[in-house]
Structures are given as structure tokens and as C-alpha cells.
Write a structure and sequence with these properties.
Blueprint lengths: L13 E9 L5 H11 L3 E5 L1 H6 L1 H9 L3 E4 L12 H19 L2 E2 L1 E2 L8 H9 L3 E2 L4 E2 L8 H8 L8 E5 L5 H16 L3 E2 L2 H5 L4 E2 L1
Parallel strand pairs: 1-2, 1-8, 1-9, 2-3, 5-6, 7-8
Antiparallel strand pairs: 4-10
Helix pairs in contact: 1-7, 6-7
Length: 205
């Protein structure tokens, strides 16, 4: 069973920013710069094949206080794979992240958010925890920043987990992110690490 975005977030007006599909060398560093400017933590659900290409971006991500999660190796729909192939997608990604950072992510986000109870149970048996979201920015579609902000801001509530992307057609994300941050802060929200929202440590030992 996947993590409920609001299961532990009602005690405070905390929000978690999450970014899928990185790292890359175009948008991911820019997004890290924005987050660091505001001193806001985020979690990046990374693809193993991207980590292999851009390990230095991953290291910068972690070294500046952001959390790294597992988003599979090549972004398949895990519900359409065999158990062995699911295991390879997650464990190969785990291995390349561990090689870069010396830690193994606990949090897994299945590509497309595509999962079911049996798959969740299998992923847990591998030592991971499935994390989805409750606010979808739809930034991956290439929409401009103004539309991304309209998809996010009206839906904010304590404990929200916000889905955005840091690779692909996401110029709009870099446009919208400062606005979303400033509006949310003005509404009395704080941005916190995902582990504080859901109450689990981010890495496995």
C-alpha cells in the first residue's frame, strides 16, 4: 500500500516538493539553484540511467541537502513487468545511487504512479517504500509556468506531496517554482523534507 500524502502531515502546514526523472544537466541544476536560494529541501526521484550519465549532478543534489529517491532505471510501467524485471529496475538504480552517494534510497516512486497492492507488497519486500503524490503539476506536458502554478496552488493543504519534474519539457517548472514557493510561504505553509511528512527515514542501511 502506497504512502498516504496526508497520513502524518496534519500536525503542521508542511509541504513536500518532489521532482521526477532526473538528473539532467539542463534543468536539474537550475531547479537545485532555486531551491537552495529559498533554503528549501526537496526529494528527487531519479532514474538509474540518468544517474549513470550525470553523477556529479546527483552528488550536488545530495550535498546541498536534498533527498534522493528511486524512480527505476529506465521509466517503464512496472505493473507490466515480471517480478525479476521490477527487481532489476529498482536494484540496478539502487546500486548506481549507492556507488555515487554511499547510501541506498528507501523511497520508490513507480513511473507514471502505476502500481497495485501486489506490486506495492513486492517493492516493500525489496526494502523500499512506495511514495506517490496528491498534487500533480502536469509540468511534464510542457505547459507554461502559469498553468503549472494553477495546477498546484489551489490544491495545497497540509501534508501535500507535490509532483513536478526536473528533466524533459519542463521549462515551465523553472518558471513556476519561485512563484509556487513564495505564494505557499505567504499562505503560511512551510516546505519540509519528505521524511518529515510521512515519518520514515529516507535511506536504507
Amino acid at each position: 500500500m502506497e504512502v498516504n500524502a496526508h497520513s502524518a502531515g496534519q500536525r503542521r502546514r508542511g509541504l513536500a516538493l518532489t521532482f521526477d526523472d532526473g538528473p539532467d544537466e539542463e534543468y536539474t541544476p537550475f531547479i537545485i539553484d532555486i531551491l537552495n536560494h529559498y533554503r528549501i529541501p526537496a526529494i528527487f526521484f531519479c532514474l538509474g540511467q540518468q544517474v549513470e550519465k550525470y553523477p556529479d549532478v546527483l552528488r550536488r543534489m545530495a550535498n546541498t541537502g536534498h533527498t534522493v529517491g528511486n524512480h527505476s532505471w529506465s521509466h517503464p510501467d512496472l505493473t507490466k513487468l515480471s517480478a525479476d524485471d521490477v527487481c532489476s529496475e529498482l536494484m540496478d538504480t539502487d546500486a548506481v545511487i549507492r556507488e555515487c552517494l554511499g547510501v541506498s534510497p528507501r523511497f520508490v516512486r513507480p513511473p507514471y504512479g502505476s502500481t497495485h497492492d501486489a506490486l506495492d507488497s513486492y517493492i516493500r519486500s525489496l526494502g523500499f517504500e512506495v511514495v506517490l503524490w496528491d498534487i500533480d503539476s502536469h509540468d511534464w506536458t510542457g505547459i507554461p509556468g502559469s498553468e503549472i502554478a494553477r495546477n498546484v496552488v489551489p490544491r495545497l493543504r497540509p501534508g501535500s506531496i507535490i509532483l513536478q519534474h526536473c528533466s524533459g519539457r519542463v521549462k515551465g517548472t523553472t518558471e513556476a517554482l519561485p512563484y509556487i514557493i513564495e505564494i505557499a510561504l505567504g499562505m503560511g505553509y512551510t516546505f519540509t523534507s519528505l521524511e518529515h511528512i510521512i515519518g520514515s527515514p529516507p535511506y536504507r542501511h
